[in-house]
Structure formats: structure tokens, C-alpha cells
Amino acid sequence: MRLAIFASLALAATALTACTSGSTSDVLELRPSAEVVSSINVSQNDQEDMLEPLSLEEQNPYPAPMAEQQQAQTQKPVEMAALRPENPARQIAPQATHKRSKIYSESFRDAHPIKFHPARHPSKFEVHGVDVSHWQSKIDWKTLRTQGANFAFIKATEGGKHVDRLFKHNWDEAKKAGIPRGAYHFMYWCRNAEEQANWFIRHVPKEKGALPPVLDVEWHGNRKTCPGKISKKRVLAKMEVWSRMIERHYGQKPIIYTAPDFYDDNLKGQFKDHSFWLRSVAEHPKMRYPNQDFAFWQYSGTGLSKGVSTKIDLNVFNGTEESWHRWLQGRVAK
């Protein structure tokens, strides 16, 4: 706004009036962005099985600053590679100052064991963990920890109206057992992404020491009113919206969990600044996901363990015990 010295009060008043009425650009700059508006005014539609048109947020998942960041990431692959969180074993990080939790050797069994190549066997990894939902029923978390559950990912939400009925119990009990844990959301492709992000935020506490939130992206099969697959464009737009909203709320970039078929259809070369958690129950991820770095590997869906009465998913962290503690130092909620 320019200042001027006027000879009379009348002229000053006239100038002030003209300045006020002509400052539309200043007023427009103060309006909330479409991102803020859409994250507050979410749809209340409970028809989960309807394929919605892309929202404004999903049509343009990159606001101007984010678009510049994406361009910078594309233009500077060398710098990004040095910082990639999905390279935990090679990531440069300060020595951990937090209290280190004890790492237990795994004592898991498998109802249907796979003969992995000896050099790429899950047992070669130093830090093992689990992921659970209500399907595991009540879990004795203290016992499970001693069997090798050094971390846990716990199902929290699905779509925009489902909460896992044992989420709060598992969330609280895993913490009491001293297990670093994070919550995951199962993305429903026929539901608005902003609404799903807000649903997760509503039910998952922002808590010091928590692992990053996880976005579980898979094809969830054909349903009568929701197609089994949507376009890659829609997939990436929804994922970007959910990820950005979650990172803004929790201060942590989400981890992406996926399976081979979904990855092949949508995620090759995408989300390079995110850590990946890969399902690969027949062979090492490097054989199934060539050139894809990863932080976690889900190697079995038929695990057996003391402390759990059902089969359980088994995972490993892609790094050493030392790099695990460094990864925690940089990635847990502060």
C-alpha cells in the first residue's frame, strides 16, 4: 500500500476511499485456500459404494507451493536420494537421544512357510514386527513383544465411516507393552479422499512417540456399486490429497503400504519422497518390486505366535538394529 501526503483532509479522505475500494487483490489473498475449505466442509454422504466425481482438491492435488516442491524433487534426484526415508539402512541421521526399546529376536512360526532364498530370508533381518486388526481378536501384547514384535502397525480406519472395533484397545495395550506402533487407514476408492483423511484424524490421536501413519492402498475387489479398479489418475490424486492432509495434521509424512498388483498398476516411480511398506509373501521385495526402495517388508500373512490365537501378519524393518533406532529418532511423532 503506497502512502501519500495530502494538502487537505478532504483529499485524504477521497484517496483513502479509492485505496480501500481498489484493494481487491489484497482481500483475495487473505481468503482461505481451496485445500482448507475442502478439508472442513466434507461431504456427509454415507453412500460408501458410489463412485464419486473427483473433488476440486483431487482434481488439483498440488497447490502452487506443493507443485513447486514436486518440480524440485523431479529436478534434483541426487539430493532427494540422499534423504529418502525409504533407505533406512543408508540414511544419514544423528545418534538417537530417545530411550531405546529392547529389540527381541523373533520366535515366530508360520502356518504356511515359504522357502525364501537363504541370502534373502526374513530371518536375516534384525528388527521384526507385526500388523494387526480386529481379526486377531484380543492380543496379549506383552507376550507378543517378547516373541519379536518390535513394532506394530494397527488398523484404525477404512473409508469414511468404519473404525476397527479393537483399534483403541490395541493402540493402548501396545503402548503399555513398550512397542512402537503406528495406525493405518485402508483407502476406499469410491469415497472422497478429504473425508477419509478427516475420518482418520478424528479417530487416531496425535501422540508423541507414534510411528508415522500408514496409507494402505490395494485393489479391494469388485463390489456391486463400486468398481474394483479406478483410473491411475484418480488413484494418485486421492493418495496425494490424503497424504498431504495427514502430514499437515500429524507432522509426519505417511508410509505407503501396497501389494504387487496395485503397485504395478499405479505406483512405479511415484511418491519417491515417501517410505514404502511392501507386501511380498513369495520372494524378497527386490525381486518383486525392482528398483523400489522400502522401509518395511510384509513377508507373511500366516504367521503364528504366542500371545495371539489367530494367524498374524509378519514384517521386518529393512535395516539393522542401529539404523532402526536412527529411523525412529527421525520419524516418530515429537
TrEMBL record:
<dbReference type="InterPro" id="IPR018077">
    <property type="entry name" value="Glyco_hydro_fam25_subgr"/>
</dbReference>
<dbReference type="Pfam" id="PF01183">
    <property type="entry name" value="Glyco_hydro_25"/>
</dbReference>
<keyword id="KW-0326">Glycosidase</keyword>
<feature type="signal peptide">
    <location>
        <begin position="1"/>
        <end position="18"/>
    </location>
</feature>
<dbReference type="InterPro" id="IPR017853">
    <property type="entry name" value="GH"/>
</dbReference>
<dbReference type="GO" id="GO:0016998">
    <property type="term" value="P:cell wall macromolecule catabolic process"/>
</dbReference>
<dbReference type="InterPro" id="IPR002053">
    <property type="entry name" value="Glyco_hydro_25"/>
</dbReference>
<protein>
    <submittedName>
        <fullName>Muramidase</fullName>
    </submittedName>
</protein>
<comment type="similarity">
    <text>Belongs to the glycosyl hydrolase 25 family.</text>
</comment>
<keyword id="KW-0378">Hydrolase</keyword>
<dbReference type="GO" id="GO:0009253">
    <property type="term" value="P:peptidoglycan catabolic process"/>
</dbReference>
<dbReference type="GO" id="GO:0016052">
    <property type="term" value="P:carbohydrate catabolic process"/>
</dbReference>
<keyword id="KW-0732">Signal</keyword>
<dbReference type="GO" id="GO:0003796">
    <property type="term" value="F:lysozyme activity"/>
</dbReference>
